[in-house]
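Quick one:
INPUT:
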């Protein structure tokens, strides 16, 4: 999850429901961030390797530690993983192919135990958040009408006068229902395209192209049905 959710109520909810989580760690969680940065700066990495992916070379160094207090007010111990990654790739500049390197630093904290989930797995889970961002929320907002204004439509609700004489927005249960229906439709459509559609597998069509064909098929006038003899 995004660093926005690195808060005590979220961590308590995770624990209460028996879940586990991997969350981005940034400076908004100052106590934990500073403790982890100081600790990792004083010791060599726990893992050092190189991987090839999508015609790119990643040189990765990983640090992993358990038992750091989440905050001063909530000293529940959590596990922190840090990844320093040097990305080497070739790119064209002014018509000439040249090598280019960029370095990135990532930190995550998690409730997953090290004995079951190795450091490399936490790194993969941390980076997979971008798949949720790109394949989930971005598709919903760009193609699923799940706009920012739609989510805040409750601000435009009519108001009613309560017993104290004050006016407050009326209850809006319909917005939650419409949101849930939209999310279910998106999940079913995505599952159909990714797991069932022959068009996507055979012709390498995008989800948008498959959706357009489905819409065209549904919009066709059904053939006349003759009365039985």
């Amino acid at each position: 999850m995004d660093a926005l959710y690195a808060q005590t109520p979220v961590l308590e909810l995770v624990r209460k429901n028996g879940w586990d989580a991997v969350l981005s760690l940034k400076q908004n969680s100052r106590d934990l961030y500073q403790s982890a940065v100081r600790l990792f700066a004083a010791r060599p990495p726990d893992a050092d390797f190189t991987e090839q992916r999508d015609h790119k070379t990643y040189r990765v160094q990983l640090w992993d530690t358990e038992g750091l207090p989440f905050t001063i007010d909530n000293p529940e111990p959590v596990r922190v993983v840090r990844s320093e990654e040097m990305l080497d790739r070739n790119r064209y500049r002014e018509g000439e192919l040249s090598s280019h390197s960029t370095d990135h630093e990532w930190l995550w904290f998690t409730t997953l135990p090290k004995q079951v989930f190795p450091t490399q797995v936490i790194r993969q889970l941390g980076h997979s958040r971008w798949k949720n961002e790109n394949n989930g929320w971005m598709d919903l907002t760009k193609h699923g009408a799940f706009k920012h204004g739609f989510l805040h439509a409750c601000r435009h609700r009519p108001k009613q006068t309560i017993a104290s004489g004050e006016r407050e927005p009326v209850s809006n249960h319909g917005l939650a229902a419409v949101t849930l229906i939209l999310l279910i439709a998106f999940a079913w459509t995505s599952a159909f395209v990714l797991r069932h559609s022959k068009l996507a597998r055979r012709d390498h069509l995008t989800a948008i192209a498959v959706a357009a064909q489905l819409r065209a098929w549904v919009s066709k006038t059904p053939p006349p049905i003759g009365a039985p003899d």
